[in-house]
Structures are given as C-alpha cells and as structure tokens.
Amino acid sequence: MTGRRWYVPWLFLAPALAIAVAFFLVPFANTVVLSFTDASTLGGGHFTGLANYHRLWHDPQFWQSVRNTALYIVVVVPCMVVLPLLLAVLVQRRVAGIGFFRAVFYSPVVASMVVAGLIWSWLLSSDGLVNAALRGLHLVSEPVPFLTDSHWLLFSSMAMTVWKGLGYYMVIYLAALANVPASLLEAAQVDGAGAVRRFRSVTLPLVRPTMVLVATLSAIACAKVFAEVFTLSDGSAGPGGQARTLVYTIRETGLGLGGEAGYASAMSLVLFLGTLGLSVAVTRLNTREDRA
After folding, report:
1. What is the pLDDT of residues 64-104, one digit of tens each?
2. CATH number for the domain harbouring residue 213
3. 3-state class percentages of the chain: helix first, strand second, coil last, to nearest 5
4. Between 210 and which of 21, 48, 122, 176 could a Cys-Cys bridge form, CB atoms 3.0 to 4.6 Å apart?
5. 171 is in which domain, residue-wise?
C-alpha cells in the first residue's frame, strides 16, 4: 500500500467507528461525568464529587437490588452452562424428526420478552395452569404465590430467563460439539469407554472454552436482567419492590421528570465495573486452569 492510500482502511472502518463513538463512547463518558453531579432528568446539576457513591454505600434499596442480582447470577448461570449442553448433546443425534425438536427448543429465543412475560404470567397466576396442576395432584392446598410473593417472583423470573435462553446457548454448544473430532470418540469407544465416560473424558475437555464463554455471556445477561421481573410483576417488582434487580433500580431512579440522573448514573457505573470485574475473573480463572 502506498503512502497516499494509508487512509483507505480508515474509510472502511469509519462508519463502525462513528457508530461506536456516537452510541457507546460518548454516552459512557456522559454517564461517568453525570455520576459526579446531582443532575436530574430535567438537566442542570452541579458537581458533587463522590456524594452519589457515598449515598450508594448507605442505600439499603441499592444493596437489596445488588443481592437480588447476585442471587440471579448464582442460580441462573450454572443452569445456563449445564442444561443447554445436555440439550445440545440430545439434539445433536441424527435421527428422524430431530430438526423439529431443535426448532421447538429454539422458539423461545425468537419470542419477544412481552409475549414470554404474558405466557408465564398466565401459567403462574393464582388460577393459572401450574397452580391448577399442583392442586390437581394434591401437592398444595392453596395457590402458590408465584407472582405476588417477592421471593417466588424472583425465582419465577429466573425460571423464565432459563427457559428463554436455553435454545440460544444450545446453538452455541451445537457448534462446539460439531468440532469434537469423531476419531477421538471412536477411539474411546474402542477402548471400552461408555457414553458417559466418553462425554466426561473427551467431549467436556474440548467444549470447556465454550462453557466459559456461555458462563460469561449468561453472567453479563443476568447482571443486566430487567424485563423478566418487570413483565411478571406488572412493573411493581413484587410487594414493596422487594424483587427489584440492579437495572430495575437504575431505571426506577432515573426515569421520569423528577428522575435523579446523577444518582442513577453512579449506579450504572457500579454495574459496569461489577460486570467488567466478573468477566475478567471468569477469564482469568479459565486461563489459570489451562495452565494447571
């Protein structure tokens, strides 16, 4: 490439760079600046230093949302790592009609969150299908408050998250399983290894990087969870808002004409740093295990 054409690669990159700067870097920088002010959604605001972060440290509502989000990650991420892998192993087999089951398992992914919320609200309401089945089997005498109790609401949202994400991560695992050499599986079978042993000794080590990827992606998704809790609770986050997550609290704090944009920005920055730290921790843990 001649010196007169050094700009050609930048011309190809320019549209993507412009979008990244306009819709990612500038809003992020603005959020950082706002987190050190008392700005509202109406504008204005004055520099307040670390006042917002000091307020966060003593805000019980913020810490409750952090605990709910952490619980969400602890419960959902292992399910997202294990269940889609087992599902991918199941649908990987080449048998008649397996394409239909792949489509069925993936269908929740393409459904909008509003539709999914309506379906789950109907299933889990006090007179819904799940409670009717539980009463019909004489497992409960009173309807289970899936949507009206804060604890049940949080776990119901987790179940909805797992249901909606299974197909997405199943496809990722299918791609990883397709790259497992058939010769290794055949060699293990010749050596007398059964299906479980082949899966544990051959398949799992080869798909472990994909498992780390799934764990990272699902953890980030759980840290940003909002729609599930909002749709299942009709925007209330349960009695007294006890099931609110961190993103829910950020939205609640910064929304509306009287919203506290500065305080919500401080929460957003904490969420960003926490998510970044979680991603780095998972990556380093995987690197350390590879070296060991």
Report:
1. 999 999 999 999 999 999 999 999 988 887 767 777 878 88
2. 1.10.3720.10
3. 75, 0, 25
4. 176
5. 60-291
List pLDDT tens digits, range 239-285: 888 889 999 999 989 886 668 889 999 999 999 999 999 888 877 87
Number of structural domains the chain divides into: 1
Whole-number Å distance between alpha carbons of 224 and 238: 18
Note the helical H segments in 146-260. Answer: 150-178, 182-190, 195-198, 204-223, 227-232, 246-254
Whether residue 125 is contained in a domain is answered as yes
pTM: 0.86
* Nearest one of 119, 70, 76, 68 to 232, comparing CA atoms: 119
Question: Rounded to an integer, what distance in angstroms lies between the CA atom of residue 18 and that of residue 76?
Answer: 36
CB 259 within 8 A of CB 196: no
Give the residue from 23, 38, 239, 256 showing the smallest Cα distance to 152.
Answer: 239
What backbone phi and psi angles, to 5 degrees, belong to 112? -70, 155
pLDDT per residue over 193-235, tens digit each?
788 888 888 888 889 889 989 999 999 999 999 999 999 988 8
- Alpha-carbon span 176 to 170, nearest angstrom: 10
Place of tokens 């397996």: 98
Tokens of residue 196, six digits: 């479980």
